[in-house]
Amino acid sequence: MGLDQHLTARKYVSNWIHSNDEKGKYFGIVEALDLTPDDLDGDYPTIMVEVPVAYWRKASQIHDWFVYNVQEGDDDCKDYRVPREQLEDLYQLCVDVLESPRKAKKLLPIGDHYHGSKDSYDEWYFEEITNTKTMLRKILDNQKFMCYDFYYSSSW
Prior knowledge:
single chain; 40% helix; alpha+beta
């Protein structure tokens, strides 16, 4: 058992939008699911699309950041909406830690209550910070994600 962490991007695609492009996306998704519009509720012609955009394994420093900054301290393995601004904040923390490694313990501390997580500020710790920085920059720079909502979840 260990800590698995996921960041997903979600978007609603609707047949209500008066745009052929949006309707085309809706019907394309319906077809890709091997369904027809008749298989769906005609009163609510909307599909939620969810795609994984980031994954961590036993990165307790990242998990703790989400728990205390997004989940109001509740480490309960539920999905939590993460505003884009908070992803930008986490990105900047990663940049700051990599620029000043001595600040790591203050800026992104390692969770001390996780089974299986590393407990030192070693190469593994900084590799996770680097990976997080890279993943977040890719998400934040992608204009296609401007109309998506982000959600964080974890499991033990």
